[in-house]
Design a protein that fits this description.
The complex is a heterodimer of chains A (about 110) and B (about 120).
Chain A lengths: L4 E3 L2 E4 L5 E6 L6 E7 L6 E7 L2 E5 L7 E4 L6 E5 L8 E8 L6 E2 L3 E5 L1
Parallel strand pairs in A: 2-11
Antiparallel strand pairs in A: 1-3, 3-8, 4-5, 4-9, 5-6, 7-8, 9-10, 9-11
Chain B lengths: L2 E3 L4 E5 L4 E3 L2 E3 L5 E7 L5 E7 L5 E3 L5 E5 L4 E6 L8 E9 L6 E4 L3 E6 L1
Parallel strand pairs in B: 2-12
Antiparallel strand pairs in B: 1-4, 3-9, 5-6, 5-10, 7-8, 8-9, 10-11, 10-12
């Protein structure tokens, strides 16, 4: 297993466009987390899944953000009508029910 | 409120010198504590963690951290820094109960290493 994989690694888009990021967790991990990280800040929790169920969403996750994990394996994070303030690194992490978090390398979003 | 404070935004040390990165947390219950390292273009990698037991925890890459409940601190140390240790270091505390625990992060400390 190669670890947590995120795609694309970098996305540049114009304001108002929709973007989607994909995360493939470590295969036996049933917990999957999304974080957002801006320059000079620590990661901010966005949401997490246990298998296909989305168990918690942060208040940071506005209505323009939606995350899915339809089959309990990979997850997608979609941002609709992007704004410049959405520019950040979007991090995915996974773990077993109990255990350490393994992070992907992140997907960097730049909104022009 | 739950929070993590890393007082030093940026630290520069010489190669071979000792290092201590500070971390203070605010959390009412017994904390689960973590240090992660993030190198440019890399994902976050776990250096070490404290759940219970011995308050001095050994991690990867020669790092260690000591949990001091009385000071609400979990400082990261390394006796001799290598140039490859230059990176961003994040302290985090796990809050919540059982399987619903999530991480609260500090703002990070950027480490530069002079040759």
């Amino acid at each position: 297993d190669t670890g947590v994989s995120q795609n694309p690694r970098h996305k540049i888009t114009k304001r108002g466009q929709n973007v989607t990021f994909r995360c493939d967790p470590i295969s036996e991990h049933n917990r999957l987390y999304w974080y957002r990280q801006t320059l000079g800040q620590g990661p901010e929790f966005l949401t997490y899944f246990q298998n296909e169920a989305q168990l918690e969403k942060s208040r940071l996750l506005s209505d323009r953000f939606s995350a899915e994990r339809p089959k309990g394996s990979f997850s997608t994070l979609e941002i609709q009508r992007t704004e410049q303030g959405d520019s950040a690194m979007y991090l995915c992490a996974s773990r077993e029910l109990i255990g350490e978090l393994f992070f992907g390398e992140g997907s960097r979003l730049t909104v022009l | 409120a739950q929070s993590v404070t890393q007082p030093d935004i940026h630290i520069t040390v010489s190669e071979g010198a000792s290092l201590e990165l500070r971390c203070n947390y605010s959390y009412g219950a017994t904390p689960y504590l973590f240090w992660y390292v993030q190198s440019p273009g890399q994902g976050l990698q776990l250096l070490l963690k404290y759940f219970s037991g011995d308050t001095l925890v050994q991690g990867t890459k020669g790092f260690e951290a000591e949990f001091k409940r009385s000071q609400s601190s979990f400082n990261l140390r390394k006796p001799s820094v290598h140039w490859s240790d230059a990176a961003e270091y994040f302290c985090a505390v796990g809050v919540g109960a059982g399987n619903n625990r999530k991480l609260i992060w500090g703002l990070g400390t950027s480490l530069a290493v002079n040759p």
